[in-house]
Amino acid sequence: MIPNLNIVPFVSVDNMMKLVLRVGIERFIAGLAEYVEEDFRRWETFDKTPRLASHSAEGVIELMPTSDGRTYGFKYVNGHPKNTREGRQTVTAFGVLADVGTGYPVLLSEMTILTALRTAATSAVAARHLAPRDAACMAIIGNGAQSEFQAVAFRALLGIRQLRLYDIDPAATRKCIRNLAGFGFDITPCQSAEEAVAGAQIVTTVTADKQYATILTDNMVGAGIHINAVGGDCPGKTELHRDILMRSDIFVEYPPQTRIEGEIQQLAPDHPVTELWQVITGAAPGRANPGQITLFDSVGFATEDFSALRYVRDQLAGTGLYEGLDMLADPDEPRDLFGMILRAAAPAPAKAPAGA
Questions:
Q1: DSSP string, 250-272
Q2: Cβ 125 vs Cβ 157: under 8 Å
Q3: Which of 36, 51, 139, 349 could serve as 200's disulfide partner, Cβ 3.0–4.6 Å?
Q4: How many domains does the chain have?
Q5: Which enzyme type, at the first EC level (predicted)?
Q6: Which runs of E-coded beta strand occur in 259-308?
Q7: How far is the C-alpha of 285 from the C-alpha of 287, rounded, in Å?
Q8: Helix/strand/coil for 339
Q9: Distance CA 221, CA 340 (A)
Q10: Residues 41 and 21 placed together within one structural domain of the fold
Q11: Domain containing residue 83
Q12: Residues 29 and 109 placed together within one structural domain of the fold
């Protein structure tokens, strides 16, 4: 991609948007989903650790590292729900891929947009294994920054065409309807979460408030529903009533992280859950019968960001949609870093006079 190994390709926000549009939003999510599923299939090859979180009263800042032994990746990401009141994003992020053999970074990328894409892709991958086969209608409760990505992902991977939308802020629902106008959905705006859930086979909750909340109560959830719980993703933040969890078969990414951050933080530490990778590889069953309530307790895991960065790296060739960053010092003599600084201060050689 870039012949000089000391120059690191950087994908800016502007270039990420151009790359997504060049590929096509649905195709981009579908391609990303294949990378996510591929990496879940080789789950056991990855280094895994819960994300490293620094919590404050205002939000959280996290690092999410992993490696498959050949490539290392990490994401820096924050979650600050109050930011929307100040005209800022709740979530921002950037990520790095590096070569394990040399330690040299091989890609630096924005991940605010990419995280939204990979979160939606992962939701749809899980639903492909867990949702009812004949699902045609999805409720989305919480119509903020993630909602359109979820809708497009479920259309691309599961063929969802009917949406029922609800947000406590009607302006958010109007925004979502406006953004999805060209994607062929049949959209119903609803006046309550209960109204939104009625008639839906899939329910996605994707709210942002950092608090214990009850977005879905037990009486809203009937037999056969698949719940895609996205918004509960840090300690002290949930969306579902505990009774729903007790009636559901629960599927998670990485239990040591989800038990701290997900809906299951409400349950006993040994409450049974199934890891998504086991379903994808066939080591454990997903949806076993039509009346089963399945719950994907999604908090986001580092392998998904690794997959997203891999996908972006593989799309870049020939596009020119990156910048080369001079971020790795490269002295002529590897042991002479100090001398490299001194030589940088030396005056450039004088040019010979014209005609000399």
A1: EEES-HHHHHHHSGGGGS-TT--
A2: yes
A3: 139
A4: 2
A5: lyase
A6: 274-275, 294-297
A7: 7
A8: helix
A9: 66
A10: yes
A11: 7-113+305-329
A12: yes
In a domain, 343, yes or no: no
Q: What is the pLDDT of residue 210?
A: 61
**Active centre residues (catalytic):** 233
227 close to 293: Cβ distance less than 8 angstroms: yes
SS3 (DSSP) at 156: helix
* pLDDT tens across the length of the chain (356 residues): 455 678 999 999 999 999 999 999 999 999 999 999 999 999 999 999 999 989 898 888 999 999 999 999 999 999 888 888 899 988 899 999 999 999 999 999 999 999 999 999 999 999 999 999 999 999 999 999 999 999 999 999 999 999 999 999 999 999 999 999 999 999 999 999 999 999 999 999 998 766 778 889 999 999 999 999 998 777 888 899 999 999 999 999 999 999 999 999 999 999 999 999 999 999 999 999 999 999 999 999 999 999 999 999 999 999 999 999 999 988 888 899 999 999 888 776 666 666 65
Fill in the amino acid letter for 250.
Answer: I
Q: 34 and 165 share a domain?
A: no
Residues 16 and 126 in one domain: no
Q: Is residue 352 part of a domain?
A: no
* Residue 160 DSSP label: -
Domain membership flag for residue 355: no
Q: Are strands 202-205 and 274-275 parallel, antiparallel or unpaired?
A: unpaired
Tell me, yes or no, whether 158 and 277 share the same domain.
yes
CA 256 to each of CA 252, 276, 286, 329: distance values in angstroms, whole numbers, following the listed order: 10, 14, 20, 38
**Structure token pair of residue 318:** 């020939």
The CATH code of the domain that includes 25 is 3.30.1780.10
Strand runs (DSSP E) across 206-336, as ranges? Answer: 212-216, 226-229, 238-240, 249-252, 274-275, 294-297, 323-326
For the entire predicted model, the pTM comes to 0.92
* 346 within domain boundaries: no
